[in-house]
Amino acid sequence: MSRTILIDRNGKLLNELGKANSGHTVMGALYYEPPKGKKQVIVLYNEKISKYDADTGKLLGECSLRSFSYYPSFYIDRDEKMLYVSCSYSGISKIDMDEWMEVALIENGIGYDPKEKIYYVTRNPDYNNTEIGYIKDYSVDELIEIGKDKLNGAEMTSEQKAKYGLTD
Question: What's the 3-state SS for 29-84?
């Protein structure tokens, strides 16, 4: 059984996390102090990520991940309240920290640049070559604007709206 223990600065055992996680391997962990709320310990297991109250060890949330690996790297965007978990070449999971759910998986992601809001990704066109590129992380508002620009004022017909269950 894989477990994570919390100890104080003097080595005193405060709590043991993940007692119910038999069969899951700890891949990585981080300590997080949100602007408001309880201090947290976030633990990445194979196939899921869990958050615990750092003082009591109580499980605060758990979500499944579609990407995981040993030695993940973590980045927290405090403004957007998103956690990015980069798992080597398998991808980057984007986790909403309020809802505690994976909202995106960037396959073949190898890094995230928070200033530019881009994901670096790889592609292997053949076995001998690897190409590196990027994907922009657009907000919902940006995507709506892009859609409006592409449509150039075009509207769906009544038949199209009915086909997709949209009403006037």
Answer: EEEECCCCCCCEEEEEECCEEEEEECCCCCEEEEEECCCCCCCCEEEEECCCCEEE
